[in-house]
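Help! Submission page says 'invalid entity' but I think these are all valid:
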Amino acid sequence: MMIAKIYVTLKNGVLDPQGKAVQHSLESIGYKEAQDVRIGKYIEVKLTDMPKAEANKKVKEMCEKMLANTVIENFRFEIE
Amino acid sequence: MKFGIVVFPGSNCDHDCYHIVKNVLGQEAEYIWHKETQINGFDCLILPGGFSYGDYLRTGAIAKFSPVMKAVKEFADGGGLVIGICNGFQILVEAGLLPGVLMRNRDLKFICENRYLKVENSNTPFTRLYNKGEVVSIPIAHADGNYFADDQTLKRLQDNGQIVFRYCDANGNTIDDANPNGSLLNIAGVCNEKRNILGMMPHPERCAEEIMGNTDGKRVFESILTTKI
């Protein structure tokens, strides 16, 4: 079994109101060093065994087609 | 005219749309389950509001792969009229039938209230009975209506007159104070270049008969009726 660990994050310049709310909250409980917070998604996909190159191709497709909306989100992944 | 109302798991404004089309406008209406792959004999398709697939992953992200969406695309490619309301709009942008994306509201709240809209383009099959620049009041009910597109896309939308509705104040000023959700350019509804697909966050079906206390949304449906297929 292989596992794809996928990180979906907002592109630079896209406002993240959730991140902003969390940053304010961190600040209010004393973490003045928390300058900025961006919230993303972490997704794990278990894959049947296949050559690494093929798995890379498939997972990239999954991200482009469904897991990320590339208008506002970037993605990256590791396959283990 | 025959309207098809596409029902996804989690759609919840389908009956409202059916009621307006059938009982208020006296037209033919039929529900189309999202598993259908053939849709024939319809003049206009409505993708109604709701929370298809629980909004999992992103709004509309899973619904865009419902079997029916291939047929919706073909219908639209052939010039058929398609209107997506609220979640229907979110599905249309995810499916790539309309540009942009709808993100979480700027203040993270679910907002359910009447909002003023300015009709920016009355030269579409969905708005031809409105006057350009007219201010109407139509309710919104969403947590993810914050319209975003890159600068290039926004410019294209403006140049082509694809921005159909914008949030405004009672006097038609499209100012930030009148923007409920953070949408760029106060965008509440856009159409495609060919003008046969409209997506809008506000709910015209919720203000389309006297008993609802507001009929400002009725002309969206009446406009469709005046369109020659």
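Support: the input was valid. A stray whitespace character was the problem, and the output above is from the cleaned input. The radius of gyration of chain A is 16 Å.
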